[in-house]
Structure to design on (376 residues):
């Protein structure tokens, strides 16, 4: 069996949801009652037998370290391999200008020492906000059988003018990539989009990084893949199950709302032999007081519900006061909602307090966001 090391980028897409990443990395953004975004990527790797993982950090990674800890919740607390937090520019010579990295290729160039010290034959690169339950071993096996230089995971999706920050991958009948371009709200219809999961030989990646450093390349897709389509064998791996990408606060809202559908939940959490792992916490059961009303919602442990909750997602420790109505909203950990409050299409970060009698409403295309530790 081929040996594989995984590398996860924790900060690449922080600017897409700046509201949620002011104090944390994209990887540690809360999702679906009890998870963080990185849980899905870590679980995909572990469920595929990959037990050596490097998480490339950039800034604001205190909450990420708190969440991952030793990695024991993902069975990654190992003497050999396991999970490694990789701060930027491990060596003194990796960043002579003392600047922050902005792309995957720049991040990888700063991690050359880690990559070269790995013993695995193959490397799999993944963003942290890839919300899917994928058997990566199938992708790795397809890569080896095809003998390609790089294999890129794609999914066929319908694009509208509103879709931005995604890359379109075009391939021929044999799955060989013939073009890569940005959607930018111009291209519509069904297209294969890049899931930002790639497999290649570790030594091949090392050679790419040396060449990229020599030529001053900064973009993996535009400078490495797009410029070498004629001379290298780059192929696609098609993924057909549920996938969600977060490119804006609206995307984050809609991806969470997807979980209220049984089909999306089953595609993510009810896949045989592929559970989604997260940090385990000991919380008391949720209290549903007499007279409360809860419909079509996901509610974590440790909540207190005195009012009405419909089509909403509540994280741990949320309290909903009497005669309060919560609809189509996402309330993160330890949010306190007073009495006679009305919320619709609202996202609260952690430790928000909303006093009695407040009425707040957004829209599903533009949810109303309340920052951490805010009192309304």
């Amino acid at each position: 069996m081929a040996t594989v090391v995984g590398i996860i980028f924790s900060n690449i897409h922080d600017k897409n949801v700046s509201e949620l990443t002011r104090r944390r990395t994209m990887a540690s953004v809360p999702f679906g009652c009890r998870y963080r975004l990185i849980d899905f990527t870590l679980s995909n790797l572990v469920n595929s037998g990959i037990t050596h993982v490097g998480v490339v950090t950039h800034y604001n990674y205190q909450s990420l370290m708190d969440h991952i800890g030793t990695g024991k919740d993902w069975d990654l607390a190992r003497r050999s391999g396991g999970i490694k937090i990789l701060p930027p520019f491990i060596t003194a010579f990796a960043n002579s200008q003392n600047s922050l990295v902005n792309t995957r290729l720049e991040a990888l160039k700063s991690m050359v020492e880690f990559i070269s010290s790995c013993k695995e034959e193959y490397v799999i690169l993944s963003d942290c906000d890839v919300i899917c339950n994928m058997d990566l071993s199938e992708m790795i096996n397809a890569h080896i059988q095809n003998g390609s230089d790089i294999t890129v995971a794609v999914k066929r999706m319908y694009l509208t003018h509103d879709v931005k920050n995604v890359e379109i991958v075009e391939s021929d009948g044999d799955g060989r990539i013939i073009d890569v371009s940005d959607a930018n709200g111009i291209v519509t219809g069904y297209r294969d989009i890049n899931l930002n999961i790639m497999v290649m030989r570790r030594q091949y990646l090392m050679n790419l990084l040396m060449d990229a450093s020599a030529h001053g390349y900064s973009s993996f897709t535009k400078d490495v893949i797009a410029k070498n389509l004629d001379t290298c064998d780059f192929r696609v791996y098609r993924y057909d199950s549920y996938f969600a990408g977060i490119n804006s606060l609206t995307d984050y809202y809609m991806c969470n709302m997807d979980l209220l559908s049984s089909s999306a939940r089953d595609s993510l959490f009810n896949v045989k032999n592929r559970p989604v792992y997260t940090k385990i916490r000991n919380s008391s059961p949720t209290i549903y007081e007499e007279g409360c009303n809860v419909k079509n919602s996901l509610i974590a442990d440790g909540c207190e519900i005195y009012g009405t909750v419909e089509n909403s997602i509540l994280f741990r420790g949320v309290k909903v006061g009497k005669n309060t109505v919560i609809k189509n909203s996402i309330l993160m950990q330890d949010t306190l909602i007073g009495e006679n409050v009305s919320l619709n299409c609202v996202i609260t970060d952690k430790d928000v307090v909303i006093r009695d009698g407040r009425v707040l409403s957004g829209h599903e295309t533009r949810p109303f966001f309340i920052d951490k530790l805010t009192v309304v």
Notes: Residues 202-215 form the longest helix (14 residues). The chain has two domains: 4-269, 287-370.
